[in-house]
Each structure stands twice: as structure tokens, then as C-alpha cells.
Amino acid sequence: MSTTIDPWHEPLLRRLDDALAADRLPQGLILAGQSGWGQGVLAARIAEKLLGLPLGRVDDEFAHPDLRWEKPGGKKVYKVEQARSALEFVANRPSNAPRKVLVLTEGDRFNEATANALLKTLEEPPPNNHIIIPTSALAQMLPTIRSRMQVWRVASVGFDVVAPWLLERGVPQAAIDDLLFELGGAPEHVLDAFNDGARPIGTDLAELRGGGKLQSVVSGWSDQQLDLLLARWYRHLRSALAGEGMFAGLSTPALLNFADELQGMRRFEQMSNAPNRTLILERLGHLWAQI
């Protein structure tokens, strides 16, 4: 395999090679896995193979006349008109590649109306045309879509594989250890967080517990991605509930109440177009300091 291929993607790319050799390519393919394991990157690698291009041109989305990437529209859901436009693209013959590829990101963002617009194409796909849906939320996808596509699962791998991959990309060992804990072992989340200037938040959470100034701590998080920041906070919370980590020994009932609040904020952030991150973090920081 090329060094441009992430090692946890190699088994599925070999599976694709076998399907190509046997002329048994799935025309509807879901790439499912936990968040942070590069389903979107894998979709790009598969698209390159299907289009007859060299592997590893870019990390994920790239332009090609026989490739279309589609993302959820307003309110983070797919619109019916958006689905129909994408299907018009995939219904046409390839222009200069052996196949045509449509990638629909965030497959859990289809509602019943947009799913119905997709069904006929999924049931009777045009020849040499392929639909790929990378997702980290397979359970939230509508059964009508899941049942009409093959599901290929991106398996997570251990620290012995992930740590060298991160070291090769410039992440120091000390940051790898702490960020892998906070981000659930997901290598792409660790790399993105490090490249965005993130540092482990455990010391910040301890500062809040010790009476540190809330506004100062929240201001220090201003350049960090909100959903990942909340996920990292949740990792410390789960560890504390298990009686482990930096915050072992905190009141279990109080931790459970905070867990409800934190999960509610995570859901709100996922569904909102423009969440007020300062208000969210200040409220959570205030409650955390009171546990």
C-alpha cells in the first residue's frame, strides 16, 4: 500500500480491489465507523480508484467532472431539491472516467422526504454509477437507506498503530498520550486538534475546579472546535464516573447531573447552525466548578 493510505483503511481498499477484479462493485456503499477514523478520507480514496486516478491526491474532497460531493444544506439536513439535483448528476453517463461517483456526506442528515427521493436510484442504480455515504452515525441513518446499500465498516486500531502515524505527522509523544485519551483514540481528531493549537484540557478543568477565573479559561478555548472540545470534556466526565483519572472521587450524583447538561449541549450544538459557544462553555464551566 502507498504511504498516503491510512493503515486502518487498507483492509477496505484491498476489499475494493477484490471487488474490482471480480467485477462485483457495490453501487451503493456506506462507509461506517466511529468519528475521527477518516470515513470521508476513505471515500476520497475509493472515489479515486473508481475514477481511475492515482491514490492520495488530496486528504478528502477533490474536484473531477465525474465526481460530486454533497453536504447537508440549511439546518444541517438534506433538502429534497438538493437530493434531486445530486441524483440528476449520477443519472448521467460518465464524461471522461470509467465511472461516475456521488459522495453524500453525513448520511444521518436525510429525512423521510429526501430519503424517498433517493430510493429509486438506490434500488435501480444506473450502470457504472456509484453512491458513497461516509458516516460516523450509522445507527441514526434511516433504515430505508441502510437496507439498500452495502455497509463497509472502518475498524479502529490500537495505540501501537495510531501513535507512529501521529508522530510521522509532527504530533509530539506527550500530546499524543493526553489527546488520544481525551479524543477516544481517534487519530484524525487528535491530528486536527493538535494542528489547531489544541492542548489537553484536563489542566483547564482542574483550574476551574480550583477556583480559576471562568472567563479566562473559556477565552483560552476560543480557537478550539466546539464539538471536539465538548467530546473531550465528556471523556474526563466518563473517567470520573468510573472512579478513574484526574477527577476521581467527585460526587457521582453531581457528575450524573452534569452529564445530562453536557450531553444536552452537545445535541444542541449538533443541530444548531450558529450556537453561541461562549454561553455554552461558560454555563458548563460554571456547573463544573460547582460539582
What report would you give on this structure?
The protein has 291 residues and is α/β, with parallel strands linked by helices. The chain has 2 domains: 7-153, 3-Layer(aba) Sandwich (Rossmann fold); 159-290, no CATH class. Helix content is 51%, strand content 9%. The protein contains 13 helices and 5 strands. The protein has helices at 10-21, 39-51, 80-91, 112-123, 143-146, 159-168, 173-182, 187-195, 202-209, 214-220, 226-241, 252-271, 277-290; strands at 28-32, 67-70, 100-104, 129-135, 150-153. A 5-stranded parallel β-sheet has the order 2-3-4-1-5, sandwiched between helices. β2 (67-70), α3 (80-91) and β3 form a beta-alpha-beta unit. The protein is globular and about 65 Å long. It starts with 9 loop residues before the first helix and ends with a helix. The relative contact order is 0.11. The model has no long low-confidence stretch (mean pLDDT 91).
Entry keywords:
291 residues; Rossmann fold; alpha/beta
Sum this structure up briefly.
The protein has helices at 10-21, 39-51, 80-91, 112-123, 143-146, 159-168, 173-182, 187-195, 202-209, 214-220, 226-241, 252-271, 277-290; strands at 28-32, 67-70, 100-104, 129-135, 150-153. By secondary structure, the protein is α/β, with parallel strands linked by helices. The protein has two domains: 7-153, P-loop containing nucleotide triphosphate hydrolases (Rossmann fold, 3-Layer(aba) Sandwich); 159-290, no CATH class.
Which secondary structure elements does this structure contain, and how are they paired or packed?
Blueprint: H1 10-21, E1 28-32, H2 39-51, E2 67-70, H3 80-91, E3 100-104, H4 112-123, E4 129-135, H5 143-146, E5 150-153, H6 159-168, H7 173-182, H8 187-195, H9 202-209, H10 214-220, H11 226-241, H12 252-271, H13 277-290
Parallel strand pairs: 1-4, 1-5, 2-3, 3-4
Helix pairs in contact: 3-4, 7-8, 10-13, 11-12, 12-13
